[in-house]
Amino acid sequence: MKSKVAIIECRQYRSELTDRAVSAAVELLGGWQEFVSKEEHIILKPNLLARCAPEKACTTHPQVFAAVGKGLLEAGYKNLYYGDSPGNHLIGVEQTAEGCGIRQEAEALDIFPANFSEGQQVPFPQGYAADHFVLCKGVLEADAIINICKMKTHQLERITGAMKNTFGCVYGFNKGASHARFPNADSFGKMIGDLNRLVKPRLHIMDGIMAMEGNGPQSGDPVPMGVIAASADPVALDSLFCRLVHLDPALVATNVYGQKFGIGTYEEEQIQLVTEEGEISMEEAVSRWGNPDFKVEREAEFRGQLNSISFLQPLLDRKPYVKKEKCVGCGICVKACPVEPKAIYFRGGKPAYHYRRCIKCYCCQEMCPKKAIGVKTTRLAKLADRNWRI
Ligand code: SF4
Ligand code: SF4
Questions:
Q1: Candidates 322, 324, 366: which one to mutate for ligand 1, based on the most atoms within 8 Å of Cβ?
Q2: Residue 390, pLDDT score
Q3: Which of 333, 345, 363, 371 has most ligand 1 atoms within 8 Å of CB, for mutation?
Q4: For 108-156, how does the pLDDT look when each residue is reduced to its tens digit (9 = 90+)?
Q5: pLDDT at site 308
Q6: Would the CB of 322 count as within 6 Å of ligand 2?
Q7: pLDDT of residue 269
Q8: Does residue 339's CB lie within 6 angstroms of at least one atom of ligand 2?
Q9: pLDDT at 49 over 90
């Protein structure tokens, strides 16, 4: 059976539009009852990466979160909670949710905060990459998760959509430790695949009204994409996002392992794309909502023969660097660095890198609140990408 993905045009964060778009998407998939039952304890899991104003497009927009909550409440679901583990575990979950505008919407709808402030180790011996996870207690107390993800870029995984949004089920500083345990896009993507096998959100709803392009997941730029999309298959949903931004879905490790592990599919012929007007082809969706200029890493990572020459590796890496004029010296990047001893430290009041220690996880870039960390591709890497692809 094909994976069904619903796509609804929605160009503004106005509650009458977002409410309608979310309920139309869920209706096309069969209604809420297809995914959750009324007796269940349900967690709404938005993206709450950091305390960012909604217009920055870094976190799930509160209107989309509210649309999901209202849709469920109107359908008679009462046992609703919300939560996410933010990137900076030193800032409380509710404080972060307040900064993103989600807490206010949740309180207005009587959707309660779940316990994302404590963690518990869960063995996962069947994992392909990870044999255990430390999950937030709120996740363990829930019967079902509805994943309300954001359409954004990510320096390590190229995109962060439905699959990667489950990383916020991992408790606090264990997220940083996971970056150290799974230091590259491939191993990290495999771990995210395992995590999705464990937490298994029932439904994924993607806020793609304003997406983030460029230096995501926190320091990029908002760009209108004008859609709400939803699916029970996070891989199919993420692959729709990839195709809309002209990125080959097979270059995203979370798609590759998601498909390999049987979570879903990114194969176009296995995806049924539905709109309110009926079924449409991927080609039509891309022509209606696609953006070929969306800034995302599209180059293949494989650099052919050069990859096997180990002394060239440092010259091929994409390196984080500090834009000193933007840096305010807050030190969040140093706290976010998961390696010991740290690969980023203070020198003359500004952060500097110890590149030999750096595992290129980009946690520092992800957590910088001032867009003061960029990622640069060396000239040799660019040349290699163009000429030595395999
Ligand atoms: S680079 Fe960013 S996170 Fe690091 S000290 Fe400067 S402003 Fe803070
Ligand atoms: S310096 Fe930045 S990219 Fe390097 S290991 Fe630390 S957090 Fe990761």
A1: 322
A2: 32
A3: 333
A4: 999 999 999 999 999 999 999 999 999 999 999 999 999 999 999 998 9
A5: 54
A6: no
A7: 98
A8: yes
A9: yes
Structure tokens given for 146:
């509805």
Of all ligands present, the nearest one to the C-alpha of 339 is: 2
Length of the chain: 390
Q: Which ligand is nearest to the CA of 363?
A: 2
pTM for this entry: 0.90
Instruction: Determine the average pLDDT of the residues in 295-309.
Output: 67
